[in-house]
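Narrative of accomplishments. A recurring question from our advisory board has been how the design workflow behaves on a single, concrete structure rather than in aggregate. To address it, we present the structure tokens for one chain from the evaluation set, followed by the sequence designed for it. No filtering or post-editing was applied between the two.
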């Protein structure tokens, strides 16, 4: 559909008010169900969750902790599908009574097994989704699953360890936050804050390796979880290269439970939030990804080969060969994609190979003058207008727009507590383009405090509480939002946003994290409304539409976070003082399309 066609189908649900209740709140006429939660068995013979007897063996057959990305992969019949879900990280003190980091190898193993991802077969009967406990497709991927390192960095000297002298295989994926889906139906799952698993960089002998790890935030001393007490690979003084084998985008075929996951090194090494695909005009595959750290960068990868819609397997190695670009935003609302290749004048002679450059992606991006952003989280092409939306979740440390960024306007608030969303238009609407235009779509916060309605007012150095909702002028109708994180589009091009950090935002009254929606076209462009509120202490992830947009899934991550066990913040979703991260399905009570 064109923008003109999409505009008339208005969002008609009654927005909900911000909430601090320890429950899921959805609009009138909607209902939710908890589909699957931490510890639920994925297989007919897997044990039920037993909070007092958690074992790695059981956990590796049960749904993992802290669900984040949710991807819906259809099966042949329209009411059956596979859900691919990331398990980002663990907080031991919220998972078990009396947790002491480094005290129990058995519980460290539970935590490692609670990381990674799940492939879960689901089935809908009428309005009810349920998990199919079966080993046809169901799969747990953990912090120990054998994976292949593919692409230019495979076999690089910096990838070699005592356990893997070939530098081509690695155990597990860690801190997988968001992700994406490829046109050929595979799951991209992104390693984000992998640095937090590796200890003792202060004592690393090799100065270059130490500096590279420091740029990615590997700590000088002990880690929070202290897995290094049990496994040498988590101690940089013993295995200095092991962290180089993390921080990648991992591709998994959810339809083949025997598929060995591939770490796709051509897509660069960063604290990847998401990896979302689009096709260039000539059929090459483009993957957008953000590096979620204060003052880090936005990237895109463009494959050399072209997508073949008629031969699924022919696409399986497309992401091993291509060019990685980093974004430079200029103040005239233009920008360029800078290629991170050995022949770039500023990169010549700095790296021994493209593989080494990719292992040190952040260092290469520093050298070419990429624009330092306010924590790039999700990135998503709009299926209706083709523009790419980039969430910058927040940046409390931004003190100067000019000195910190090289582009004052793309991150205009000082500091940026509320976060913002950038709308990027590739030249000629081609995702393979070398340059782009951009504008601010949302400056999140409380529109009742200081609502800007004209783009000309978005000058660099804006106060922290200035807001902008794509020019929408009626503050009394607008919702309040902070810390946008994951995003998704419905088929009319409305942007659905989930948040991670609203409870810390006093400007909007410290509500629980939530799901909001905002049209990107028509008279209601910018008219943001709240659709869902999560329970206390959680962030909301996903969102993911399915079932002809009659269901929207989202992940409720870390309800009651840091409340300990017994939990003092949340008892969601079972009423127990051991709150459990879970995936939720939201539907309209009459079975109709979400939002309209
Ligand atoms: Fe795990 Fe960038 O949020
Ligand atoms: Ca998360
Ligand atoms: Ca996130
Ligand atoms: Ca986040």
């Amino acid at each position: 559909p064109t923008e003109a066609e999409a505009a008339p189908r208005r969002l008609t649900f009654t927005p909900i008010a911000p909430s601090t209740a320890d429950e899921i709140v959805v609009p009138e006429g909607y209902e939710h169900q908890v589909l699957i939660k931490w510890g639920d068995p994925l297989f007919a013979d897997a044990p039920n969750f037993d909070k007092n007897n958690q074992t790695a063996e059981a956990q590796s057959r049960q749904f993992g902790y802290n669900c984040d990305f949710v991807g819906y992969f259809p099966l042949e019949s329209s009411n059956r599908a596979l859900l691919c879900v990331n398990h980002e990280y663990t907080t031991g003190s919220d998972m078990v009574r009396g947790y002491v980091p480094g005290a129990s190898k058995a519980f460290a193993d539970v935590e490692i097994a609670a990381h990674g991802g799940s492939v879960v077969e689901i089935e809908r009967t009428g309005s009810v989704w349920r998990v199919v406990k079966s080993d046809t497709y169901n799969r747990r991927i953990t912090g120990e699953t054998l994976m292949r390192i593919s692409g230019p960095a495979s076999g690089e000297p910096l990838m070699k360890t005592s356990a893997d002298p070939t530098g081509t295989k690695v155990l597990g994926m860690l801190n997988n936050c968001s992700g994406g889906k490829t046109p050929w139906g595979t799951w991209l799952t992104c390693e984000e804050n992998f640095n937090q698993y590796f200890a003792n960089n202060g004592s690393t002998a090799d100065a270059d390796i130490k500096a590279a790890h420091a740029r990615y935030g590997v700590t000088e001393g002990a880690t929070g979880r202290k897995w290094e007490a049990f496994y040498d690979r988590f101690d940089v003084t013993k295995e200095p290269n092991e962290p180089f084998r993390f921080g990648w985008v991992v591709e998994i075929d959810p339809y083949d439970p025997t598929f060995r996951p591939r770490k796709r090194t051509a897509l660069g090494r960063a604290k990847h939030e998401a990896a979302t695909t689009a096709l260039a005009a000539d059929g090459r595959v483009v993957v957008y990804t953000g590096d979620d750290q204060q003052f880090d960068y936005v990237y895109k990868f463009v494959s050399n080969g072209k997508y073949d819609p008629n031969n699924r397997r022919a696409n399986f190695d497309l992401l091993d060969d291509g060019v990685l670009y980093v974004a430079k935003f200029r103040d005239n609302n233009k920008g360029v994609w800078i290629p991170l290749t050995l022949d770039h004048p500023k990169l010549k002679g700095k790296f021994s190979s493209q593989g080494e450059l990719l292992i040190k992606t952040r260092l290469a991006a520093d050298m070419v003058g990429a624009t330092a952003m306010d924590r790039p989280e999700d990135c998503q092409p709009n299926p209706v207008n083709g523009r790419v939306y980039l969430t910058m979740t927040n940046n409390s440390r931004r003190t100067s727009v000019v000195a910190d960024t090289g582009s004052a306007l793309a991150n205009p608030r000082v500091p940026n507590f509320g976060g913002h969303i950038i709308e990027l238009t590739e030249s000629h609407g081609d995702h393979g383009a070398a340059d782009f235009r951009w504008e601010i779509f949302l400056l999140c916060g409380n529109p009742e405090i200081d609502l800007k309605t004209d783009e000309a007012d978005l000058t660099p150095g804006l106060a922290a509480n200035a807001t902008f909702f794509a020019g929408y002028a009626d503050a009394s109708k607008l919702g309040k939002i902070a810390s946008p994180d994951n995003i998704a589009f419905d088929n009319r091009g409305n942007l659905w946003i989930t948040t991670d950090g609203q409870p810390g935002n006093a400007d909007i009254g410290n509500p629980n994290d939530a799901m909001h929606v905002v049209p990107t076209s028509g008279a209601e462009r910018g008219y943001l409304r709240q659709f869902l509120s999560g329970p206390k202490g959680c962030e909301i992830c996903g969102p993911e539409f399915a079932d002809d947009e009659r269901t929207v899934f989202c992940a409720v991550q870390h309800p009651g976070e840091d409340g300990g066990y017994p939990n003092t913040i949340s008892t969601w979703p079972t009423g127990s003082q051991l709150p459990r991260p879970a995936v939720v399905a939201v539907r309209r009570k009459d079975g109709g399309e979400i939002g309209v």
